[in-house]
C-alpha cells in the first residue's frame, strides 16, 4: 500500500513540475500550450487535425503534447501562416491540346506513312498522336501549334486525329477528320494519253495510184482534198494502234473498198444528202500496236440515193504512231 502511495505522490510531483521544466527549457513553447490539460490527457490525438493544419500547432514539442491544442481558445482565428504551400492553390494544369486543321486531310489506304501536318494549340509536351486510335508511325512537335506526323496504315474511312499532352487528349472535332481512301475504288484517267498524229493528203508517205486529183476547198483540212471519180487507190502504211480516214461526204459521193492488213475488203459509203467536211469515213478500231497497212480503192458502186461515185481523202489520223 505504501508503494502505491509512493507512486501516486511521485506521479503528482512529476505532473506539477513538468510544466515548469517545459516553460523554462523550451522557449518555443507558448504558455497556452501548458495551460491546458496534462499531456497524459492526450488520449485523442486525432484532434490535432481540428481547426487548423497540424503544422500550425503552437506546439513543437513531443507529439503527446499536441493534444493540448484541443483546449486552445484563441481570441482571434489564426491566419494561415505565410509560406505554407498546402494552402496555396496548386499550379494550373496545362490546357488540353486542340486540333484545328490537317494538311492534307486524306491519303490512300496503302500510303505507308503519308506525311500529315497537324495545326492547333497546346502542342507542348506531346506524348502521342493517333489516327483512329492507331498510333502515328512517328511524329514531331514542330512548335506549340504544329506537329508533323506520318499516318499509320489504316482501312478506308474517316478517322479522328487526336493529340495527347500532359494537358490531356484533344477533343474530337470536325477539324481532326482524316480520310483513308481506297484508291481501288477510284477511277483515274489513263496514265498515258494516246497521241494522235494527223497527216494531210499531201504527205509524201501516202502512196497514190490511179486517177486522183487534188481539189482546193477551204472547208477541207489544210484547204485541200484528194478526190477520185475513176479507178484509183491509196495505200497508207503506219505504225500505231488505230487509224482513221477523213474525207468529204456529198450527195454525189459513192463507195470505196478498204482493206486492212489482210482483212477485207469492206465497203465504205461517202454519201450524204448534203455536203459534210472533215468527216471520219472509216476507222480501224483498236489494233495491236505495230505496223499496219490500209488500202482504200475507188469502186463503181454507190448509194442508190447518190448522184455519183466520188470518193475522197482529206486527212489521215494515226493513233499512237506515225505514217511509215
Ligand atoms: Ca486536206
What does this structure look like?
There is one protein chain. With 324 residues, this protein is mainly beta. Among the domains are: 98-185, Immunoglobulins (Immunoglobulin-like, Sandwich), CATH 2.60.40; 196-323, Jelly Rolls. The chain has two helices and 21 strands. The protein has helices at 2-25, 31-34, and strands at 98-103, 106-108, 115-121, 128-131, 134-135, 138-143, 146-150, 157-165, 168-169, 177-181, 196-200, 207-216, 224-240, 242-249, 255-260, 263-269, 276-283, 290-298, 311-313, 315-319, 322-323. The strands form four sheets. Strands 12, 13, 15, 16, 18, 19 and 21 form a seven-stranded antiparallel β-sheet that branches. Strands 2, 4, 5, 8, 9 and 10 form a six-stranded mixed β-sheet that branches. The protein has a four-stranded antiparallel β-sheet with strand order 1-3-7-6, with no helix packed on it. Strand 12 and strand 13 (224-240) form a beta hairpin. The protein is rod-shaped, with a radius of gyration of 52 Å. Mean pLDDT is 79; it is low at 20-72. Bound molecules: calcium ion. Residues 200-201, 220-222, 224-225, 314-315 line the site of calcium ion.
Summarize the structure.
By secondary structure, the protein is mainly beta. It contains two helices and 21 strands. The protein has helices spanning 2-25, 31-34, and strands at residues 98-103, 106-108, 115-121, 128-131, 134-135, 138-143, 146-150, 157-165, 168-169, 177-181, 196-200, 207-216, 224-240, 242-249, 255-260, 263-269, 276-283, 290-298, 311-313, 315-319, 322-323.
Amino acid at each position: 500500500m505504501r508503494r502505491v502511495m509512493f507512486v501516486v505522490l511521485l506521479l503528482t510531483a512529476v505532473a506539477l513540475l513538468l510544466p515548469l521544466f517545459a516553460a523554462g527549457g523550451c522557449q518555443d513553447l507558448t504558455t497556452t500550450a501548458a495551460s491546458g490539460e496534462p499531456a497524459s490527457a492526450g488520449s485523442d490525438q486525432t484532434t490535432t487535425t481540428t481547426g487548423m493544419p497540424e503544422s500550425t500547432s503552437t506546439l513543437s514539442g513531443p507529439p503527446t503534447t499536441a493534444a493540448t491544442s484541443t483546449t486552445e481558445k484563441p481570441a482571434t482565428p489564426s491566419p494561415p501562416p505565410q509560406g505554407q504551400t498546402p494552402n496555396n492553390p496548386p499550379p494550373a494544369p496545362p490546357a488540353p491540346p486542340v486540333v484545328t486543321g490537317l494538311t492534307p486531310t486524306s491519303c490512300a489506304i496503302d500510303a505507308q506513312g503519308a506525311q500529315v501536318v497537324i495545326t492547333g494549340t497546346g502542342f507542348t509536351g506531346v506524348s502521342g498522336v493517333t489516327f483512329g486510335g492507331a498510333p502515328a508511325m512517328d511524329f514531331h512537335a514542330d512548335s506549340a501549334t504544329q506537329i508533323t506526323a506520318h499516318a499509320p496504315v489504316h482501312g478506308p474511312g474517316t478517322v479522328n486525329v487526336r493529340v495527347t499532352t500532359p494537358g490531356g487528349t484533344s477533343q474530337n472535332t470536325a477539324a481532326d477528320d482524316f480520310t483513308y481512301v481506297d484508291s481501288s475504288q477510284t477511277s483515274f484517267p489513263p496514265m498515258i494519253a494516246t497521241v494522235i498524229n494527223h497527216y494531210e493528203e499531201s504527205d509524201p508517205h501516202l502512196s497514190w495510184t490511179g486517177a486522183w486529183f487534188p481539189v482546193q476547198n477551204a472547208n477541207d483540212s489544210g484547204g485541200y482534198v484528194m478526190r477520185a471519180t475513176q479507178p484509183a487507190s491509196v495505200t497508207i502504211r503506219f505504225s500505231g494502234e488505230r487509224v482513221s480516214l477523213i474525207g468529204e461526204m456529198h450527195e454525189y459521193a459513192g463507195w470505196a473498198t478498204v482493206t486492212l492488213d489482210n482483212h477485207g475488203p469492206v465497203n465504205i459509203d461517202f454519201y450524204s444528202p448534203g455536203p459534210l467536211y472533215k468527216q471520219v469515213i472509216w476507222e480501224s478500231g483498236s489494233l495491236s500496236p505495230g505496223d499496219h497497212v490500209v488500202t482504200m480503192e475507188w469502186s463503181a458502186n454507190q448509194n442508190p440515193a447518190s448522184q455519183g461515185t466520188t470518193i475522197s481523202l482529206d486527212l489521215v489520223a494515226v493513233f499512237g504512231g506515225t505514217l511509215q
